[in-house]
């Protein structure tokens, strides 16, 4: 396609960038198919003509956009001869998500570790431990903020449920999901492992003996450093609702912050990481008690697996009435609902909610959905993106 | 009018945007009438020619500006065929205010709930509950900040008293007030309802039994989560003064932050949400003890109604010597006074205070006021805005 | 003067704006005299041709720049007919300083009042009072930040010692000093008076009886709400040094933040208020214990006078070994030293320190100083500024 | 060289500024040699033609770039006649680093002093001392932030390990290192000395007698104000790991924040100081317990030397099993590793890691490294930089 040759694509982390395009009205599947799901300009105007066809195929097979989000001057022919540089190009977004999640977990789990293990220590300056509950709000808030800075090249979702909502409502291709998911969960596993390694002697000291590892509600339990355990009085329904509502708020506000047609939000993304700090801090200070505001599968399941692997007993799974599945499932439901609410009431850009029957026509008339899907596939093929 | 046809209007959320216009001197009612109370450019330069005449009439009947603040590319013909999209266009500003207030209340009331209900819990990391009084300053501060991001398309007043002051001093048409008021109070009701739903099992646990609900100064009262109750030693006059002075500061600083001729303030609005975080945080840390800094009818009355509806006893109204009316009335007085002070001493733009007799000529010479009013009406009609 | 007619002046709040000019090298008094101490562009490019000659004379008599820092469109002929508008133009900078200091004191003293009076109250959410020492750091930090936003049109010094240093090192004319000083001290008096009025019933309750007012180190003293009293173990020398060093840091960092040739600082002033929040917060958290970090005559003397006026006993003056003079004198010494250090080691723009003998030639060779002074006066006269 | 004459150099603080250049691909030593390690534009576009050849030689002898980072208008001929102005030009970067570190240490050590010495004081507002552990996170975070503002003209490393990593991965010439190192350590010594002078009477009071000075784990030890001492239960390996991992995170995130090709980071440096506040706050809240997060030789060794000099016993060296060498060595290892990780997984610009064998070819084939080195030397000579 001639126009494609003139406008080679570089990256496709949906969300904000998509919205800078002029969207055609979304009414018919034909129109829907015209939405530029794969777009082209890097933020500094440079475009890459160079990604070799082998790399493109490999990336495409992994579910990523054929072209890596790398500025042209950094992606030259010679560099591509280096094996590791090739790997780096192929796995650019997964690497970004992975390290973003690692940074987030390091600060988040690290703050819980420091506050929990030093509880009431009288030798601390101030005489009452090295931090208070609020330090944990700080830790997760700034962990997410710095993680977003680190993971800029992948869209910085840092949360499978947010990737999920972007697939659902913001035209992020579904085939991106698995690779992102793997990178995020791995990041949670590795990040919490580093925290464990750092605090291993302190955990021994706190639990009262080398190798003793207990899970809440044991009195000296340290498993709560890594993943969340609910308060004992909270019913199963309240557990789910608490995670659900926090995830709903998370997605609703993120969609507002990423909505360029919303006059309350700066046109640039510069304020986004700071706003996320306040958002996550707020969720911790306001909805963080009952279930520990996991609101993120990779932040809860990854570290839970890690803690089980390094020797915590099987109560990591059974505690709280096999609570572990709630922070895996509720964030997806909550984020989907939060995105739904935002698109239903405020968003005016292209979203399934802004199509006939609030998008349900796609559900109840499979032919209609199939037609829209085929249109998009045809278009993607024409652009050489399969 | 030819010039109107060339400059179609899109939105009119007064305050900052009005002030970007070149104002003519305000001295005579004729001059006053020339002030562009209804203005036109969307922030990205796009203008909407498309809002159908039915929609315009409906919006006008609701007291809103005939044209919705929606960017042209998002408001095309086809979309307008969808029933829900029409509703969305008609109720754009009420929806924005509603959700802005919901987000504000979720974080604000949520922070009080978490701190109050977990008071002194020794199993918390740090051993002393899941937050302290300062968490509440954080909650309200960042709730307002994020609410402003969400409610950008309506002006993000989030407070009837602030809407009121903008009508009084900043040429926001009075007919906008009722619709904004309804949306704001509803937002308070719904937002606090969600907080109640989230913490219902924790409230049962804290109060000491299923369905027990008490109001301060009962020892285990939880009604204070939703709306404000004064300290017992504060006299009625001090109650009123405390709410009054906090509202005065609120309005004074907001007018300073929105004053484009004030050299201390950036020309863009990007810093506004963050500055509001500090302002609300400060009011909570400095004027939040005696009466709980309601400073907002919709933040206090909405949740109070909700708490009464879900089963709190009638003390929600009678507590503190029927205190409930103070956070309904004092914010209006305080914000009006704060705006008056700012316009009297600092503001040099168009304000009734900057007219003869500090605007009192309008009061004492009805003919003068009538003349100014008729001028404005005539102008509005000419622009097809009635 | 032809060039003056073409470049009419509007405002002259020194500091940052001065530095945007291209300075000529400072070596000889002639060169020094060429520095544009009175400058012209308003930040939005508008200039005022209109300030009437009567107003100019009145302003000049008060020590202010003949032209008020008001954008042209806000300073039209008709408005000038209104008496109050004339007053507003004449007293623009004093009004700005006054209200800036009022806002600063409201939040600063308000935070001390709330924390002190509610110490240990178990009915608070969290069970331990309505704030902690850190709330006071927040209060003063954000009070200064919001005060700067409010007082943008006067330079927002909010502190006589900082005005003093700007006269000394940054060519702010000395005749500005008295008017600014009066406005600042009045602001301190009024601001603390409002805090007293707001907390009067709480003070009665805390002191243990109507009208009882005590001064530290009395066990239930409340005088510490308004002005600073030193810790009992601190020697006089340490008292002075503590105020001195905090003022030095204050001025050193402010000069760095206002230095446009310093590559660490953004060229715009947008970050300045936020950076000041951190600076003041830091002084409170790091140098706020021994003497209460007054670092500001108007913040300490104004409220001290107010507290004496409303009935606190004469210990407000005698406490701490007649400590009251230290926060009056030390900030001037400290700020002068801080400015000296910055100019000596880092500043490369026009400063007396960057002249022969580090500016001491002016001191030891009166003829040299006189010559420079006469040059500047002649130039000012030529521009019609006397 | 003609082109050099046309493009005279002014400053060379590597890191961000280097990266704004268009880098040639790094594959061969020849290409590597072409990297503009010494660059030219000052941030406001001005360039200095004036630095005299004597000054250039002196600066070069000190290991600094021959041209000082001073805007042309500030570096005129006449000024250069003044002895002190010459010194200021010669020592520009060392002065900047020195004062940046002084500011950082003043706030950092100051916050520890205030919290530690006032622990549990019941006369404080709030009744529990003048700060809590979190104040220390604030102190170090904002100290670094303000230090970066002050030290803008030197690159604001404020940490020998960060300078080291910039030499290793970002083409900062190694000959810069010694001068920076000296300035930084001196800054640590002087800054902590000022804190000691300020709190000397409080330290006497806290230790229980004039001149008594003890080191942790003594019950009333105050040596912990100035430098770090590990928790007693932490093994030597954990001590090292804790400092190592915190330094790794520090460098990894700083490289991300300074990477212009990372889409998560704003193109301007304006957000950098604020992001560093959050980063340092986070390290204090999450990795600050076991060893006190020195992560910086000059922040730990400088104050340790000072405390020994003013009379603390020799336990300052022997405490914690001669722990003192760990915060000297571990930060270098950690920062080197953090930079390695960032360059390995994310950075696509010019870095040794992005050369054959991840840069190890330079290690194992000395001839290859020598060739690259000679190329760079030849180029530097041609530009008159030796």
TrEMBL record, chains A, B, C, D:
In the bilayer, the protein is annotated as: Multi-pass membrane protein
Q: Single GO molecular-function term?
A: water channel activity
Decide whether keyword Protein transport is in the record: no
Catalytic reactions on record: glycerol(in) = glycerol(out); H2O(in) = H2O(out)
Residue ranges of the region described as Disordered: 1-22
Q: What is the predominant subcellular site recorded for this chain?
A: membrane
Q: Which UniProt keywords apply?
A: Membrane, Repeat, Transmembrane, Transmembrane helix, Transport
Q: Does the keyword Lipid metabolism apply?
A: no
Instruction: Spell out the InterPro entries in the cross-references.
Output: Aquaporin-like, MIP, MIP/Aquaporin
UniProt lists the family membership as follows: Belongs to the MIP/aquaporin (TC 1.A.8) family.
Q: What is this protein called?
A: Aquaporin
